[in-house]
Design a protein that fits this description.
By secondary structure, the protein is an alpha+beta fold. It has 13 helices and 17 strands. The strands form five sheets. The protein has a four-stranded mixed sheet, with helices on one face. Helix 4 links the parallel strand 6 and strand 7. The two termini are 35 Å apart. InterPro entries: RNA3'-term_phos_cycl_insert, RNA3'_phos_cyclase_dom, RNA3'_phos_cyclase_dom_sf, RNA3'_term_phos_cyc, RNA3'P_cycl/enolpyr_Trfase_a/b. This is RNA 3' terminal phosphate cyclase, putative.
């Protein structure tokens, strides 16, 4: 959802990155627009193709017919085929979360020939890249934002069923064309919902995170509901919190995943054993304790966000909820129709809209990912967006290309 590696601003300019790096960062955008516009895509890469890029291209090839995708160690060539509907199932590389693979499908499935059901799975064995996972939305956050935009363009039966973070099933029927969108009105938050998932840790830690979140959110909205889940099975000990604020004309999300080793930097395992659901965290804490002991003779450095050993672990978990709630409040205060993480999703559909009328979207501030998407839309569709400045944001406007879904069956 998303927040692909190096897709956020991070204070960098585009010129600071190599052409190869930019191509890799925005492969999903290029592949999606190539398929929609039936334009051939060829990329020469300096670094070898990664397993998650192979998984992505396998998915995009699988939902089309008549096309051709050629992968070499340092090159990608896509000759787009026709988008077809049906039932599909794919197993993905766990180096990236499912929201990474799901976003291209949100753009493409509504333009297929018939009702489509796509199941994506991650292997439960092995561990993903924690840093990559933190730069993408959780399934709950991404699916909530995507459901709103899909139903806005006419996909009333669009639905997501997921088991965070290992499985998601996306179902949607095709649409003939997209009417111009008006997503410019400012709305008020009606309710806030969310989930705290505690994996391989004591569920009471999740309750502390909920308490921390509600302390902030109760001042913003009277209707706040955050559920606690403790899924069974082996996994990396962690706490994941997803918060969604739904309004009359808006949806904002915030999420965070904190791993056990971030919670406990200086706590000894024997002092924390009562919080464990299995022995995996004990081993982590024991190793962390040995590393900290070896650093006792070196100058002290700042602790991590949650790693202050003088703070009880329940207070740290409460802080997780508080920080995520504060992020959500910040997104709400920006005033965009969508939060900054998902603001780019409607832009593709706006560029495809018809009837020669203007589509509008209220945006808080442009992210790096959004800027690159705007450039790609101009390159592939010759659609140029104009912006009206507001006191607290922007109104993005464009006239779409009047795209008609010729893949859709007429009888």
């Amino acid at each position: 959802m998303g927040r692909m590696v190096n897709e956020d601003n991070n204070g960098q300019d585009f010129d600071e990155k190599s052409h190869d790096s930019i191509q890799r960062d925005y492969l999903r955008i290029s592949a999606v627009l190539s398929i929609i516009s039936h334009s051939k895509l060829s990329l020469q890469l300096e670094e070898p193709i990664t397993p998650y890029e192979e998984s992505l291209l396998k998915i995009l090839t699988g939902i089309t017919v008549g096309g051709k995708t050629v992968l070499d160690t340092h090159s990608i060539s896509i000759t787009p085929g026709k988008l077809v509907g049906g039932n599909f199932s794919f197993k993905c590389s766990n180096l990236m979360p499912l929201s990474y693979y799901l976003e291209p499908l949100v753009y493409l499935v509504p333009l297929s020939s018939e009702h489509t059901s796509v199941k994506l799975e991650l292997p439960r064995e092995g561990e993903g890249n924690e840093e990559f996972y933190k730069q993408f939305s959780t399934l709950e956050a991404f699916c909530s934002a995507s459901t709103l935009i899909l139903r806005t363009i006419g996909c009333e039966d669009a639905s997501f069923r997921y088991k965070e973070p290992y499985e998601v099933i996306f179902e949607c029927s095709p649409i003939r064309k997209i009417e111009p969108l008006d997503l410019s009105k400012e709305g008020k938050t009606k309710r806030i919902r969310g989930t705290v998932q505690v994996r391989a840790l004591q569920p009471s830690l999740g309750k502390s995170a909920i308490i921390g979140a509600k302390k902030i959110l109760s001042a913003v909205c009277d209707n706040v509901w955050v559920a606690l889940a403790s899924p069974p099975g082996k996994s990396e000990p962690s706490i994941t919190i997803s918060l969604i604020a739904e309004g009359t004309n808006s949806i904002h999300t915030a999420d965070s995943t904190v791993y056990a080793k971030e919670l406990e930097v200086k706590e000894k395992a024997n002092n924390s054993s009562k919080y464990l659901a299995n022995s995996s965290l004990s081993k982590i804490l024991e190793i962390a304790g040995r590393k900290e002991k070896a650093k006792e003779d070196t100058p002290a450095q700042d602790d991590s966000e949650y790693g202050d050993s003088s703070v009880p672990i329940h207070e740290k978990c409460e802080r997780i909820g508080t920080i995520c709630a504060e992020r959500l409040c910040t997104e709400i205060s920006f005033g965009g129709y969508f939060d900054t993480t998902h603001q780019h999703i409607p832009l593709v559909f706006m560029s495809l809209s018809g009837d020669h009328r203007v589509s509008r979207l209220r945006i808080s501030k442009l992210t790096r990912y959004t800027i690159m998407l705007l450039r790609q839309l101009k390159e592939y569709f010759r659609v140029t967006f104009k912006f009206d400045e507001l006191e607290d944001g922007l109104i993005a406007k464009c006239v779409g290309i009047n795209y008609n879904n010729l893949n859709m069956k007429t009888f």
